[in-house]
Amino acid sequence: MNITLTQPDDWHLHVRDGAEMASVIKFSAQQFRRAIIMPNLKPPVTTVGAALAYRDRILAALPGNASFTPLMTLYLTETTKSSELESAASCEHVHAVKYYPAGATTNAGAGVRKLANVYPLLEVMARAGLPLLIHGEDPNPGTDVFDREGIFIEHQLVPCVEHFPELKIILEHITTTGAVQYIESAPDTVAATITAHHLLLNRNAMFEQGLRPHHYCLPVLKREQHRKALLKAATSGSAKFFLGTDSAPHSATAKESACGCAGIFTAHAAMEFYAEAFEQADALDKLEGFASHFGADFYGLPRNTSTISILKEPWAVPGSYVFGKDRVIPFRADKHIPWKISASKA
Q1: Cα(257)–Cα(162) distance, rounded to whole angstroms?
Q2: CA dist., res. 248 & res. 108, Å (int)
Q3: N or C: which end of the chain has fewer CB within 10 A?
Q4: Spatial CB neighbours of 89, under 8 Å, sequence gap ≥ 6
Q5: CB under 8 Å to 172, separation ≥6 — which residues?
Q6: How far apart are CA 338 and CA 280, in angstroms?
Q7: pLDDT at 109
Q8: What is the pLDDT of residues 49-88, one digit of tens each?
């Protein structure tokens, strides 16, 4: 079996920086035509100037034959200036602003304590047509880690959407039935991305015959009923749900430490994993819309004209890949997966 799709885009991608970024950017460039690049570096990408410099470093690290466009974002803080957001909105290379709840995930220490704290900035974004990307979790220490998404939606996202009906919002990497139901009922200005690993795994995967640090991510994996709800949403044909890998490489050393980092590296075989999930749901005919059409439409960008083919042919994922001076352990390391990228065509 061989399926051919309009070349997809990744609407949520971490590529890190420096030698680590140079090690992994090729994987995304082999599959995706464009990708929304996350800004949670150290220090975070908070200005247009920093975003453009980061873009230049990404382009310089691409393989010579790559046709890949990084779509840059700014990291929203409580000290972000309105003028910076206006500059971002007028910059052809900056496509969104990212909201991290303070302390919620990797390098989120500079994030925002509460969404309402930045309402004046969201007003600027709404007027300028600049989308808001949200890591939707309540990181309060008193909040159960499995309830963080639902509490954030109820107490922060719902009021925000009501307050800013014109603001485009993407709730990223949703993980629960409640999030699916909210997105389905929300205005057309609100959409969501779904990762491959949340389509393929439930929370048991973190504890299979021991503690599995390479299955630890944030938002954390949830119960099987939630995985099924995500798969149903992704394969529904609804334009409110589209692909965002949240591929998040960390060194094996950082993952396998006493306080392991959150993130799953899937960029090496992202489309293969989505094909696997959609095949499980008998919905391969819905993959192109989810992967190649709906995200571009929501962002107001043209759909790609190039194509990509995926072949039903098992292959073995290596146990690790080079990651700067260390190694990164990929999703499904040392295992065979059923789909393989066959070819791409301009």
Answers
A1: 42
A2: 14
A3: C
A4: 125, 128, 129, 130
A5: 12, 133, 134, 135, 136, 192, 193, 244, 246
A6: 11
A7: 84
A8: 999 999 999 999 999 889 999 999 999 999 999 999 999 9
Residue of 41, 45, 9, 6 lying closest to 28 (CA atoms):
9
Q: Which residues are catalytic?
A: 246
Question: pLDDT tens-digit profile of 164-196?
Answer: 999 999 999 999 999 999 999 999 999 999 999
Query: Which two three-digit tokens encode residue 29?
Result: 């460039």
Which token pair is 337? Answer: 């997966």
Is pLDDT at 330 greater than 60 in this prediction?
Answer: yes
Q: What pLDDT digit, counting tens, does each position of 219-232 carry?
A: 999 999 999 999 99
Determine contact, residues 85/121, Cβ cutoff 8 Å.
yes
